[in-house]
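Checklist before submission:
- one chain only
- standard amino acids only
- sequence pasted in full

Submission:
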Amino acid sequence: MSATKAFANNILDVGPSGQPTAVQNRFKRFCRGELTADWRNTNPDLISGDNSAKALLAKIKAERGSLSKKAKAKA
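Returned file contents:
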């Protein structure tokens, strides 16, 4: 059994009372994508404007371009 599967099986086992624990319930919600949706609804300012995926990708590409230019100049 892989380590990931063993970890998932351990998390999904029920707690001592026979009921899932809060951590287990949160993990299940995470696996279903519910926590991501809740977070996006709560934090729209963190995923729009300067923090949008498109803007962040542009920043990453610009930074990579400047790093490769510096590396070429040193060589």
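Reviewer check: Residues 53-74 form the longest helix (22 residues).
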